[in-house]
């Protein structure tokens, strides 16, 4: 199945909110516009083979620049020595194998000639272009292509920012609730009102699952959405096998656990949507290069480096926030162990409250 069809089916079959789907990469529209880009290049004498040869010989460059207005501007430039002067404005420019500018014997006077299919370029402009070393090739279709692509990436950035803020708010509320439910209590009567041990075991399983990131030597780094889904299912299965939910002493703990799962499910859906659209961007850029030979695969991410959608990961940001606001709120035994007594080898270890928590910084493998 072609990617365009699978992309459309994935958007419709994953129960994404409609406002998410509306901001997805318009892969079909970009694919149609890509055909016009190739037609315009060919019409001006720059078919894929010609462009490939010019780029390989460093006689042409395709530049992607972000202007002060934050608009991405593509530009094709060639060296004058690699082009020829056309006889008429409607003549398709041809590239000489000798690499020198020349005019056929039957050509009219130089005053009526134009450069590279641009009827407005006069001989003085040609001289200036030669001095500068490059000649701009005016194109329209590629500007429209990258304008649509950049606009949609910016909209996806905005959507991702909104979703991240919404999840951060939910994480803070959940962290406060779990801190209350798992707070250590003194006395037999008060211990019965705490779910400290259940939450401690749940979070140990969650950390062992490494849902969104792996620290294993054989597979270090972020997981893809499918592997993350499997790890989240494994975590839930382990919690159910140990019947930890049935062991909760407080009804609010069961509600908090449900909220915790919902946050992870929401994060997984956001992560998968981001992954799907990133794949669409990669595919359409790859197709652009294949049909034009302009080689923007490496340049486009650099030009869009300020876009979190391209260079960031919502899963990484939210997991870091969850570790700080939720997982760290459940006290661990090691937090109350006196390291002096332990290292001294005494048989009776004493417990001391841990110092005030420092700002949490979680670093995941890049």
From TrEMBL:
Pfam families named in the record: SPX
- Organism domain of life: Eukaryota
Q: Which residues form the SPX domain?
A: 1-302
InterPro entries, from UniProt? Answer: SPX_dom, SPX_prot
Which segments carry the region annotation Disordered?
Answer: 98-119
Q: Which residues form a coiled coil?
A: none
**What is any one GO biological process for this UniProt entry?**
cellular response to phosphate starvation
- Enumerate composition-biased segments (Low complexity): 102-113
Signal peptide region: none
What protein is this chain from? Answer: SPX domain-containing protein
Source species of the chain: Neurospora hispaniola
